[in-house]
Amino acid sequence: MLELVIGNKNYSSWSMRPWVLLKHFGIPFTERKLRFDFEPGSAFYAELARFTPAGRVPVLLDDGFAVWDTLAIVEYVAERFPQHAVWPAERQARARARSLSAEMHSGFGALRQHLPQNIEARLPEVGQRLLAEQPAIQRDLDRIIAMWTAALKDSSGPFLFGQFCAADAFYAPLAGRLITYGIALPPELQAYVDRLWASPGVAAWVADALAEKDFLDFEEPYRQHA
């Protein structure tokens, strides 16, 4: 039986990716949620050390065997469950999906730093202010818009490579950031974000995040707890 070790659903974008993928394809798993606490010696780090030396979520456990890092987890799931189209079937589309996922994994630092995940919030005024103050965010957005536009044109949708795959799971948290911070998109890309947000795995994660009600002040430096 698979077990996925994750962080707070409202805030943990990396945890969201493999959880959404497993849920979308109906792959059975249990979750172990660890409340974020990044102080040295915290219960979060002590519990996580039982599974991985990396000190980060998510971690996938398969009968006790640990796989960490989101890309590694997704590749493990693709090999473990070949009956599911985790990646596109066609070779070049599969390579492109992996390229887009890897770029999400390693890039867009400005957007990720300044617009952190917060699913339950709606902060358009923060988004507009940060776009004006941090030009690097717009550069990240321009690249994302170009990638999404090209992928949807080639595939004709409804998702980046036709049917939902790992690339969509990788970009789901980013779509959530755009919603939270009120970032405007071209109509065809906003329609993609809407479809992605309504897809079964993403919708299930969002519902859990909204029900979580666990405010962490260090995750929200831009506002006070009401």
Question: How does the SSE layout of this entry go?
Answer:
Blueprint: E1 2-6, H1 13-24, E2 29-33, H2 43-48, E3 59-62, E4 65-68, H3 70-80, H4 91-106, H5 109-114, H6 124-133, H7 135-155, H8 166-180, H9 187-198, H10 200-212
Parallel strand pairs: 1-2
Antiparallel strand pairs: 1-3, 3-4
Question: Can you give keywords for this protein?
Answer:
226 residues; alpha+beta; Glutaredoxin; Glutathione S-transferase Yfyf (Class Pi), Chain A, domain 2; four-stranded mixed beta sheet; 4 strands; 8% strand; globular
Description:
- The chain has a four-stranded mixed sheet, with helices on one face.
- Helix content is 54%, strand content 8%.
- With 226 residues, the protein is α+β, with helices and mostly antiparallel strands.
- It has ten helices and four strands.
- The longest helix is centred in the middle third of the chain and has 21 residues.
- It has two domains: 92 residues, Glutaredoxin; 118 residues, Glutathione S-transferase Yfyf (Class Pi), Chain A, domain 2, CATH 1.20.1050.
- The model has no long low-confidence stretch (mean pLDDT 95).
- Helix 1 crosses helix 8 and helix 1 crosses helix 10.
